[in-house]
Amino acid sequence: MLIRRVSILAVTMLTLSSTIALAKPTLLSRQVIAQTPTSVPHPNGGKSGGWLQDLNLTSEQLQQIKQIRNQSKPQIAQKSQVIRQGQQELYDLIAGTATKEQVRDKYNQIKLVKQQLADVQFENTLAIREILNPEQRQKFADRMYKKNLRPNPPPAAQHN
């Protein structure tokens, strides 16, 4: 009987963790791009990799992007910590004797903070978008959406 309970718990944990991780992977992965540390090209011509270099940003644009990231860094770190702690608490609740309602409440708390984190990251993406010119925006969007995820090219890009 104990083995059956442990097996059920293990399957539940895997299912729940997969559900949490996969809830909105493409949305989060697109939004995280604005927060992902990258190497930044040096204005004096030094080369380094990273998606920012592909945008051919001016030094002023690079500075603005750095400022956007720095402003939200504490909030992102705090929300990430709350999520990690909440996931540990959720694990403990599932493994323990908590009621179904207690487990569901903790899950919903984590889900709310994840949405708040995604919102902060999306706002960063919008702020970065505002400092880009139209050509840079196109490259930025292509990079975020990995061209192959776009179902159809925009009308201007279609050739007859």
Provide the residue-averaged pLDDT: 74
CA radius of gyration is 21 Å
Order of helices and strands: HHHHHH
E-strand count: 0
Q: Which residues sit in consecutive blocks of at least 5 with pLDDT less than 50?
A: 1-49
Terminal CA distance reads 67 Å
Strand content: under 5%
Number of helices: 6
Q: Can you give the helix content as a percent range?
A: over 70%
Main pleated-sheet profile: none
| Gross morphology | elongated
Structural class: mainly alpha
Explain what you see.
This protein is mostly helical and 160 residues long. Helices cover 71% and strands 0% of the residues. The protein is built from six helices and no strands. The longest helix has 37 residues, at 59-95. It starts with a helix and ends in a 15-residue tail after the last helix.
